[in-house]
Amino acid sequence: MVLGQIIGGEYGELYVRQKSGQLIEIGDLLWIDDIILQVYDLAYGSLLEDTDIARMSGMQLEGYEDTSLMEEEIRNYVSAKAKPLVHVKDGVARIPKCLPGFFGTVDRVKKEDFHFMEEPENSLYLGRIRSGSMVLDVPVYINGKDALSHHILIPATTGRGKSNLVKVMLWNMVPREWCGILVIDPHDEYFGRNEVGIKDHPDARNRLMYYSPNPPKGGYSLRVNISQLKPWNLRGIIDVTDAQSQAMYIFYNHHHDNWLEAILTADAEGENHGIQGVTLEVIQRKLRLALDLNMVRGEVRAMGNIFVTHTNNDLVNDIAHALETGKKVILDTSSMSGDKELLIAGMITDEIFRRYKKYKEFGELDDKPTVSVVIEEAPRVLGDRGGRNVFHTIAREGRKFRVGLIAITQLSSMIPREILANMNTKIILGNEMKSEREAIIGSAAQDLSKDGKNIASLDKGEALVSSIFTKFAVPIKIDLFDDVVEREGTRRTKLEFFG
Ligand SMILES: Nc1ncnc2c1ncn2[C@@H]1O[C@H](COP(=O)(O)OP(=O)(O)OP(=O)(O)O)[C@@H](O)[C@H]1O
Ligand SMILES: [Mg+2]
């Protein structure tokens, strides 16, 4: 059915006149001559002079004679601005390099127009093709193994469906052995402790691990032995001067895994490898505060329930091992301060990164799953604050070692441009803030310079996938997680999960 006709424009900015009785929306996909166009703006058009229009309106409003227009549907119309998105040639998607026929008529896209969309290897399902707000029954996949190691950014204003998207992605990755995922979960919303969640996946009992400071019966407890902490894990977590930082490294070099206990029990009056007494005292206080430790009769005592001095579990190595065997690990950090959360996340990520660098060196990387770390409010770790930490390092060079990030954020503009540009897949959900959209658009894999209004008008669960692994920025609708669980899940209580 004819939706409109091309009446002018240039490459990247075609004018389509909407047929009367039809409705073109922002984001709609149109089909003409094997080219898919996407509408990015709408305006009125009229054959009448402005003054005539104003005069007629005046007469109508003020109740003068009948002012109905002859052949109104010919004189007044809606004009849509559209850009070519993809050219389907011999069943293959290409970047469009020509204009569709002048005066040609455009249709709505149909399911059949997307025959060229194939399911890639190691596929990760994201959602279904969306034309404006209409959903087509065409699944959209990316090569998950590649996309995860090249980082995924999920930017959106609050409430637009970031968490829902991550749940849907995690759900689909549970059975996949080609990826290990670490989820740092500050809202304890992914496992589904008291509602539906990833635990309801049919394969979850073998493939999902849940750590919490207060785990349900049978669950793993999130406790870290302080002997596993290394000085570099504290970068960006506690503010230290150069001298204080050096003091930690000096102790580490002398005492290895015992450095923390050694530095905390050191007598400020003593020799202390040449470190000044005041420096030592300050760093001791900062460490005690950051880690909830206290000194009782010359011994280090844990005051909180997260950093402890005695535990049989080797949390960091256990989790690193689980990840490199393709498991999904959720850490409930909802009861922790942000700093403790990032400290633990950093310790595990650091261990995984260290291991993967070694695998690469020994040529063993190809046998390992890609590992990805899901991090909420990503500017906390990727922002400029606190200098370089392991997340910066991974954002910059993780792809070489197949360790990636899934960074969730409301504030992309707080992430340095270079890092944003390194996040090679962006699943962009709705965002009203122009400055945020500009940061995202400016670092996207495709030219999204015309997509500002498109992104602003995205409803909950509607997204634009811009990736170096897709031929064009693909508009999708993400499934609602609850529907996915209803369809594919096995509802269990948390006790059934661990039982
Ligand atoms: N794909 C979707 N389809 C339909 N509704 C959705 C979809 N995604 C999210 N929603 C609705 O929007 C609500 C908010 O979604 P969600 O919690 O995922 O947003 P968020 O971006 O994570 O928000 P916040 O910034 O507060 O964490 C959900 O409770 C759900 O009702
Ligand atoms: Mg959320």
Q: Quick recap of the structure?
A:
By secondary structure, the chain is an alpha/beta fold. It has 17 helices and 23 strands. Helix 6 crosses helix 7 (259-265), helix 6 (242-255) packs across helix 8 (277-291) and helix 9 crosses helix 10 (338-361).
What is the CATH architecture annotation of the largest domain?
Answer: 3-Layer(aba) Sandwich
| CATH top level label of the largest domain | Alpha Beta
Helix content bin? 25-40%
- How would you write the strand order of the largest sheet? 9-8-23-22-21-10-20-19-11-18-12-13
CATH superfamily of the largest domain: P-loop containing nucleotide triphosphate hydrolases
Shape: elongated
Strand content: 25-35%
Description:
- The protein has 499 residues and is of the alpha/beta class.
- It folds into 3 domains: 4-114, no CATH class; 123-223 and 313-498, 3-Layer(aba) Sandwich (Rossmann fold); 227-307, no CATH class.
- 30% of the residues lie in helices and 26% in strands.
- It is built from 17 helices and 23 strands.
- A 12-stranded mixed β-sheet has the order 9-8-23-22-21-10-20-19-11-18-12-13.
- A hairpin with a 2-residue loop joins strand 15 (293-296) and strand 16 (299-302).
- The longest helix has 24 residues, at 338-361.
- The N and C termini lie far apart (57 Å).
- Bound molecules: adenosine-5'-triphosphate (ATP) and magnesium ion.
- Residues 162-163 line the site of magnesium ion.
